[in-house]
Amino acid sequence: MSASSDYLEDKLLDHVLRNTAYTSPTTVYVALFNSDDSTGATSELLEAGTLTTECTGGAYERQAVTFDAISGGSTSNSSNLTWTTASDGNWGTITHVAVMDSDVDGQGDSAGQGNVLFYGALDTAREILQDDTFQITAGSLTITLA
User: How far apart are the C-alpha atoms of 142 and 128, rounded to whole Å?
Assistant: First the structure.
């Protein structure tokens, strides 16, 4: 995953080139996204920071993630990320993941909150049905700046 959002690109450019303070989040989270179309709309929404395609459903929550030391311009998740079992219904087909600066997902009556930092499509989409789990194994979520 090497796409960064417009939000993060603006913050980093301001920070590096204009000496404008940017405070990185204390904790970052991985959110799961799905889409029923093949038009690339989910990537466009994530680039703009729109969270309308984030998973919803029983027990879905964003997962806190930590990353290994950066080497050669990239880093990967340092431990497994395991979501709880989809207990009340389906989450749909997971097509994308995003690293977020907030753990507030779009469950209940609230909209998902926070900023997309990095995002990307899964190599293989995965449908999550009731009683399924979703996992990203350690080292499988790689962030690269090009």
Answer: 22
- How long, in residues, is the chain? 146
- Strand partners for 40: none
Domain of 61 in residue numbering reads as 3-144
Helix (H) or strand (E) holding 14: helix 6-18
Please tell me what DSSP assigns to residue 10: H
What's the structural domain count of the chain?
1
Diameter over CA atoms, the chain:
49
Residues 9 and 115 sit within 8 Å (Cβ to Cβ): no
Q: Is 98 helix (H, G, I), strand (E, B) or coil?
A: strand
Condensed to tens digits (0 to 9), the pLDDT of residues 59-71 reads 888 999 999 999 9
What is d(CA 118, CA 38) in angstroms, rounded to the nearest whole number? 20
pTM of the predicted structure, to 2 decimals: 0.87
CA–CA dist 53, 39 (Å, integer): 14
Residues of the chain below pLDDT 70: 1-2, 36-43, 45-46, 48-50, 106-112
Instruction: Check if the beta carbon of residue 102 is closer than 8 Å to that of residue 111.
Output: no
